[in-house]
Design a protein that fits this description.
- The structure holds two protein chains of two kinds.
- In chain A, 77% of the residues lie in helices and 1% in strands.
- The two termini of chain A are 37 Å apart.
- Chain A has 13 helices and two strands; from the N terminus they run H-E-E-H-H-H-H-H-H-H-H-H-H-H-H.
- The longest helix of chain A is centred in the N-terminal third of the chain and has 38 residues.
- Chain A is an all-alpha fold.
- Chain B is of the alpha+beta class.
- In chain B, the strands form four sheets. In chain B, strands 6-7-8-3-9-10 form a six-stranded mixed sheet, with helices on both faces. A six-stranded antiparallel sheet of chain B has the order 13-12-11-14-20-21. A five-stranded antiparallel sheet of chain B has the order 15-19-16-17-18, with no helix packed on it.
- The two termini of chain B are 39 Å apart.
- Classes of the chains: A mainly alpha, B alpha+beta.
- At the A-B interface, helix 8 and helix 9 of A face strand 6 and helix 2 of B.
- The structure holds adenosine-5'-triphosphate and magnesium ion.
Chain lengths: 300, 362
Amino acid sequence: MKKRIKAADVRGWLFLLPSLLFLAAFFIYPMVDVLVYSFEEQFNFASQTYTGVGFYNFNYVLHDPYFVQALKNTFILVIITVPVSTCIAILIARCISSIKKLREFYQTIYFLPYVTNTLALGLVFMILFKKTAYSDGMINLLINAFGGQSVDFIDGPYWAKILVMSIYTIWVVLPFKILILTSAMASVNEDYYKAAKIDGTSSARIFFKITLPMISPMIFYLVITGFIGAFKAYSDEVALFGTDLNGAGMNTLVGYIYDMLYGDSGGYPSYASAAALILFTIIFTITCINLTVSRKKAVY
Amino acid sequence: MKIVLKNLTKVFEGRRKKDPDVTAVNNFNFEIPDGKLVALLGPSGCGKSTTLNLISGLEEPTSGQIFFDDEDVTNVPPENRGIGLVFQNYALYPHLTVLQNIIFPLQNLKGEERLSMDEMKRKAKDVAKLVQIEDLMDRRPKELSGGQQQRVAIARALIKNPRVLLLDEPLSNLDARLRLRTREEIRRIQRETGITTVFVTHDQEEAMSIADELILMENGVINQIGAPQTVYDEPANLFVAQFLGNPKINVLRGFVQNEKLIIRDEVFMEMKNTPDKDLFVAIRPEGFVIDENGTLTCNVRNIETTGRDTSIVATHDASLEENIRVIISSDEARGIEKGPIKFSYKENKMFLFELSGERILL
Ligand SMILES: Nc1ncnc2c1ncn2[C@@H]1O[C@H](COP(=O)(O)OP(=O)(O)OP(=O)(O)O)[C@@H](O)[C@H]1O
Ligand SMILES: [Mg+2]
């Protein structure tokens, strides 16, 4: 009996071997490499030499104003966009679920941004927000129409840039969330609503006491992936503010790592690795917290 | 409280133009007496759930009226009709405990009707006692067995003291033993509360055993209404005769010639004042008598003795089904062997039907 189980075990591992090798080559090895890099002090890329082992790289990164700025930007982005986009997606999904006519049409409309290229979307936002020699951008025209002063959203004050970045990020992540939530809502058994109707439940109570709890696993899924996605933001910022994100004061953590490796001031794999490890730690911690909370809350 | 349906019709229109309309409920007229348990019985898709949904108000009738006592409730929304509904899958909220599920309807009450939490809990306790789930109040639905979930669903339906209790196939998710026990339980709860109850099922045995009255339907049309035993003893048509009873009633082709009813080549019985025609002869399994002078000769294929009763499987050329099933007491069956056998019949277990299915009364 024991032998048999072992044979089955071996066979299982054999089947897993290709993917394990793949994982080792493209995931574990780089991870270890990053870990090693991040502790090697004064690493010289050309000669592949270093002077010592220690926390110097972390110390440097944590005191680098660009890193602090990127950390701040990323946190603000996460804190704003994840809850706001999730709430908006829930509202829109709720509306889509309650209409009968043209439902597919609306679903398609809301899904379009998802299949549109980030840079193309960036262009649209440029037209909306960017000041050029000819125009202040659509939004400013609107603000002017209501008697307000033009704001430079792309090169202007920090809050304006954060605002554009948040709106853009929310805009980009919405379609997927809406899609997931509409199908989650559609899969809630009709009988729950019938039972609620017979009991005279108000539509607000139905929404908060039945629909939301029923789709809560999906909401948690979206929040967790939303957090991870927002922490890894980079391309959206490039699409809006160009490649010199440090100059624009709009860099993100991933952007900082990229710049440290390949940017104009790049060539510092040790700093990049240290920053990557810090980012990994943050995402890991937050995901763990999220999972714990969702396990406690989603009880069925 | 009695329920009266008047000329009630429900037509589901085809989704596209070319799709045919479905008449799920066709001109229903019946009265459910106060405090009775009535079973809506019929094969799948005959419109039982639709009828129930019309009574509950979840569906609007295409035409016709519904009265609760003398009150016309046709246009009253479901929440104001004073009904409790139990679904086939129970529809218990999975994220709420049993207690929270049961008081959910009470928490919808507003203004003066609103009860304090203590009162709600007390009420919940009362119904929980009635359906015997007092010990399970803090569990969640998935931590309950099917039968227990069923009881919780009934408790939730009862907590607002409804005037009518509607049950849509409440037992179909339970295994055979539990089904038996639960249906007795439902019967007991109904007796204790005296609530007018409509019970939907496609299981004739279940309906026969639980109901004060049967409403037997087919394809949106009512076939017969009456007490279970009456409907069984006096089926209005062939469909009813075939639908009730297990094993099924045996149906044979016959014809009348010169005032004699002939099955295959035997004169089965005399039929005075009847023109020549084809018809169906239906005999319940328990309606056969072994008789040397009998007028129906069958061929015994198989004999199964199950204690008190003996079940005989025989064949006959004129039978609609492959086999004829006969049930007689084991004493009478002693000494039967495979091969030809002659039967006579019990008058009250034999029915004649036109080819259209209509009953021929003698
Ligand atoms: N919403 C609907 N739209 C169109 N047709 C419907 C709808 N609901 C039911 N029907 C049709 O009406 C008929 C009766 O349906 P109903 O659900 O009342 O049957 P039932 O007797 O409850 O069957 P079952 O025992 O399978 O539950 C069926 O032919 C069904 O296809
Ligand atoms: Mg049904």
